[in-house]
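re: ur question from yesterday

yeah so i grabbed the chain u mentioned. its 333 aa long if i counted rite. heres the sequnce exactly as i have it in my notes:
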Amino acid sequence: MTVRLLAFTERGFALARRLGEALEGEALRCGAPLGLADWTAAAFAEAEALVFVGAAGIAVRAIAPHVRHKAQDPAVVVVDEGGRFAVPLLSGHLGGANDLARRIAALCGAEPVITTATDVRGLFAVDEWAKRQNCRVENPEAIKRVSGKILSGGQAGVHSPWPIEGTPPPEVCLAEEADCDVLLTVRRTEGDCLRLIPAAAVLGVGCRRGTRQETLEAAFQRLLADSGLHPLAFRKACSIDLKREEPGLLAFCAAHGLPFETFPAQALQRAEGAFSPPSDFVRSVTGVDNVCERSAVLGSGGTLYWKKQAGNGVTMAVALAPVSTDWRWNDGW
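ran it thru and got these structure tokens back, copy pasting raw so excuse formatting
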């Protein structure tokens, strides 16, 4: 988690620096060099967490123009300059503000002031569970419905095609897909349930030199349409090291927020799996008979999910990394 800290007094700055060292974050004093508005705008856009060491009212006014959505906003925590209280203001579950407040409290002896209803009552928090299970939330508006059912004394039904380790909390039960309140899936689906997407898919890519970003984007959209995979399921893209600095491919990955990993031909050739028929032409150019499938498998550590799809000088394939889930949703599970 990238953390930015801002303090307003000398005493507060001393605490901010101490917390910054422990959290590996950047601590600044307001006005040196940035004022409150400029610092908040930059930190809100770039960091995963903002920590204000000072009054809560100052923090609320500073972040108000930037608040967008619970699935997008960074964590925001306020700590008084005396280090007595750590208060999460924004993105308590999905953004990790509650956990950050607890961590800050442990570092400086503060009391974490947690106000989210499920935490106050010690009940299962589905959005915090999603974050801890490395799942993306497709429809965050459904979180309120699931939490409301739990807060009113009901059980939320969860369906997962993967085993979930441990015993479900009392507020949760396993359910069939057709009847569930929460669905774990890597595929596009419809319905009213809360859809959690494990980041398990790895995109393998091969392309001609000079392939444009637009061509790669069109190939990716075809792959999504044919495979039924959800775009949120992708964790990274992989290829051969010959494509390490391919401009169109780098731009495509940046546009989708996908880390890009490459492998030498020898490593790709050693990848194990049931691959499409080898290509002598690809071997003559790259030194390996299949780039997209082999790089997807090697980058995922899992198995091939969608075989090579080719067109316009682009090949793409998808492998799924192993999905491991449990019922852990807070540190006291």
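noticed a couple things. The two ends are 22 Å apart (CA to CA). also The first helix runs from residue 10 to 23.
anyway ttyl
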